[in-house]
Each structure stands twice: as structure tokens, then as C-alpha cells.
């Protein structure tokens, strides 16, 4: 008897399970926040960001966006939503703590997880990328939970002759890279510089194969020649001289991105002393005392003080900062990058330090955010990221304070989403 009575109950609970399944929310709406969509448009107040299956469905004010029935609503009133930040010049996989030489698939993923936890949702690694990272690239990898999306440049192209260097381009192509990268620099007179016929051949071959090519450079004269030769990104600041009209004309005419990497300069000399940021809780949340202790060693600090190369970079940093200000004012596209992921260039933290230095150079919060969102995606050719646009990937940050009021507010991260999935703070 008892069993017979149970049957209707079982049926009811089965039906309940089924109906629960069908009413499960397929959409998530973030409501009430101020939304900066990254395009440069005015902020939306009382905005709605509607996402579904990792992609953005709609962005607008409450009146503009219809919230479908099967929606999980998350009230984020009082917060600001911005696109996930893109580092267009980083490196991944080699460094653990401050030590190089740890390249592995696991370390690539660990590095990308550090970036992600600081709100850097995409990293373009401009060189030093090995085979292990190919399968982890943003274009192939669909399970990027908890770590930044990755694009790679493979081996930094070098060679004494055009033939030698072009062979490296072909090797990168065979490996399956997203970008090419060369260095045209003598490291303040300490090493030979790639000759013009070599870099011209490398740029031509890269374009022939359909790649954009980024160039590490230092001197104004080289930067002009590289623009003329067809480089697709100046991957550092011009640091020897103030930029002139000819340079501005060239870079604007060709519509090429300029990636200042001010923290790269800082990293060359800042450890001549105990770096102020070592006690910043935003730094120590990811980097512990044991990691940084070699950088606090007085003998090491003395070495930096006595290193003429480091001291040259230090002396030239104000030139780089002034050039950034001049170029931004001229409307040259500034593409956000740090050159972090090298020893003692701390992934994640350095991106926030870079934004602070860009502000010190005279850029507005709006200009800085655009450089790390829209510009980074557009000038690196990254698809479906960079702005909060319907159809794009749901990579975004929920901030506790308004970054337009003070760029330092971009550190006040409440939540980070990559492909619509929340990045767990560790
Ligand atoms: Zn670099």
C-alpha cells in the first residue's frame, strides 16, 4: 500500500526536476552599474549588461535592454563595469617568482592565472613562446577558466642575414603563432643592432604569411625607419629623443599603435633601492616576501646603482613619458603594454603600475582605459574582445569605484569575468 501511495509523489518530483531544468536561467543580467563599454562612448548610468553562454547579448540602459524571462539578475548598483584589460605586450611561461627558466605548459597557465586575478583578461605574449603554449592560445583554447586569454609571438626573430631571419619567421609560422616580433636595438650600445636589410626582409615575409609584426625599438631614428618599413606596432617608447613632426606624421599616416611600456623602464632601475610598492597590499596579495627578498639585498641594489645601462634607462624615462603625452595629445593610438612577465616585472601588478605611470605622464583615465581595451584589441587584431559589444566575449571587470574619477580606482576590483565565468580570487 505504502508503495502505491509513493508513486504519485515520485512522479511529481520527477516532473518538478524536469521543469526546474527547463526554467534554469540561460541569461545573466548585471543591473544598476555604470557601464563604460570601452568604445569611448559616454558612460551608461543604471546600465544592464546581459550575457549568455560566455558572450555579451546586450548592453544599454535599463530602458534599452529587455531582460528575458530566464535570466539570473545580479544587482551591481553603485559599481562600474569596464571591459577586461588587455596587455598587448607581456610575456608568459618563463618566470616563476622572479626566476626565469621555468617554461612549461603548467607555468604558462600559472602566469596567466596571476594576470587574470589582477583583471588582465588577455595577454599578448611578444616573444619567448615555446611549443607548449600553442594549444593554450586564445584562438584554440575554449576552456580558459580562471586565466587570461593568450596570444603568442613565438621566438623573437633574429639573424645576421635576411635568409637566416626569414627562416625564423617560417619556423614561427610552422609552430602556429599569432604574431611576429623583432628587436631593432643595440641595448644602449652594448650589443649589435639588427641591420635594415634584415628587418625589411622579416617584415615583408611576415606580411606575406599574413602576420602583424611588432618591433622592439629604442631610438627615434629607428622608429621612423621601422614605420617606413611597415612595422605594425612600436612595442616600446621612443626614449632617446623627443618625438618630432616627421615621426608623428609617419605614425599617424600609417595608423600604427604605440605601446609605451613605461614599467619596463622602471624595472631596470627601481631595484637600486627598496621599491616602494613592496609594501603595497595590492602587490603583496600575489607576491610574498620570499619572492622579492633578492631584490632587497643591498649588494644587488648597489649593482643597479653602478650599472650604466640601468642608469641610462632611468635618465631617459622622462623622455618616454613626455613622448607618450605628446603622442596621445596628437591622437596617435596608444596601445597598452608593460613588457611584464620578465624577471622582476611583476605580472598583474605592473599593469596597474603602468596605468598609474601613464596618468603621471598626463593621460586621462579615459585615454588609459581605451588604450587597454579598444585600442589594444584593434591594433593587435584581436577579435571579439576589447569592448562591451553584443556578440563579443563576456570579458569584464566589476569595480567598486569609478575609474574615470581616478585611474587608481581600477584596482578596486569586485569581480572579474572571462568568457562570462567568474575568476576566483585566490
Ligand atoms: Zn617584451
UniProtKB/TrEMBL annotation:
Alphabetical keyword list: Signal
Lineage start: Bacteria, Pseudomonadati, Bacteroidota, Cytophagia, Cytophagales
Signal found in the keyword field: yes
Keyword Cytoplasm: no
Entries under InterPro entries matching the protein: Amidohydro-rel (IPR006680), Metal-dep_hydrolase_composite (IPR011059), Metal_Hydrolase (IPR032466), Metallo-dep_Hydrolase (IPR051781)
Domain Amidohydrolase-related positions: 80-422
Region forming the signal peptide: 1-18
Record-given protein name: Amidohydrolase family protein
